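chain below, 255 aa
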Amino acid sequence: MIEIRHLYKSFEDKEVLQDINAEFQNGKTNLIIGQSGSGKTVLMKNIVGLLDPTKGEILYDGRDFVAMSKNEKVKLRREMGMIFQSAALFDSMSVLENVMFPLDMFSPMNYRERVRRAQDCLDRVNLIEAQNKFPGEISGGMQKRVAIARAIALNPKYLFCDEPNSGLDPKTSLVIDDLLHSITVEYNTTTIINTHDMNSVMGIGENIIFIYKGTAAWTGCKDQIMTSTNKKLNDFIFASDLFKKVKEEEMKAKS
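prediction:
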């Protein structure tokens, strides 16, 4: 579990995050949602150590990441997997070599063991047949699945995903969501997904934090989100005509 306690982040005289408190649970898909510019990306960057908070605590299973030494942070980062918005694959490497990259960097396995582990991860995301292809030869959805395989290669305890469905069609987005959720449950990871995709929210949002102008304005799950009375959240959720109609139908059914 990852706990955020009274987290603040400022850039010069501008306060971007204000007194954020949140819990991200093991074995669940934890979502950070909010409008562009709300602070959700800054929050994730603080959690993974790409930014240092102005003040507050970030606890990884009780370990304060903020107070750690440089060496301790390096060691903890080996327990993290990252999936970037653009997939961030190496164009000059094959699919298999991309998945092997973190193993080559950090694993004590010999070469055969690293290959086998990478192939197991590709098999887990149903891409073993693409292992010898290059990123430019596969679709955007397949590239995201390769990124997931690479992210789980070292059996991370913590998995971070920045807009994993960005640029994907709705059908492929559902495949990615289902894959992330099943991997989270299978490996009991603490998965945090930064997203504005409402289909993801309603599909796999087991634990959701809504960020509004740098504050944690609402927390809950997908089953609670449709009946929320939080005006800021409702304005964000029901900006889509589809979700407005769903809300109206629910209200009619209750009346």
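The first helix runs from residue 40 to 48. The chain has a mean pLDDT of 89.
thats it, cya
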